[in-house]
Design goal:
The chain is mainly alpha-helical. It has one domain. Strands 1-2 form a two-stranded antiparallel ribbon. Helix 4 runs antiparallel to helix 5. The longest helix has 19 residues. The mean pLDDT is 89.
């Protein structure tokens, strides 16, 4: 069995304590807490920013590098998805159109 030194255990306990304290801070107060209006307005954009941070690198990068060719099925599927969303404003149709273009290009033509 591996032995863990006291320093490692201390760091784990310390990080756990900091995590519990910071996450439970708002629950410990007896007063209701309101975010400022500017923070509430900023949080409206958080889902869009998070989705962009996940999706855009997945579209334009392959194996940690920016793709160097236009012959990538993800590019065509993303463009088709954007066009479908702009014309219909239907998220389900956006996914269906993007995948309907992606799968034949990727599996059939090897893009």
């Amino acid at each position: 069995m591996n032995s863990t030194d006291a320093w490692t255990l201390g760091v784990i306990v310390g990080l756990a304590a900091v995590t519990v304290l910071t996450r439970g801070f708002f629950l410990m107060s007896n007063q209701t807490w309101q975010l400022p209006k500017w923070a509430q307005r900023g949080l409206q954009y958080a889902p869009i920013a998070a989705l962009s941070a996940v999706v855009i690198p997945e579209i334009v990068m392959s194996h940690g590098e920016i793709i160097g060719t236009w012959q990538d099925a993800r590019l065509f599927a993303a463009i088709a998805g954007v066009v479908a969303y702009q014309t219909t404003r239907n998220v389900l149709l956006t996914i269906v159109v993007g995948m309907a273009l992606y799968l034949p290009l990727h599996l059939g033509l090897g893009f």
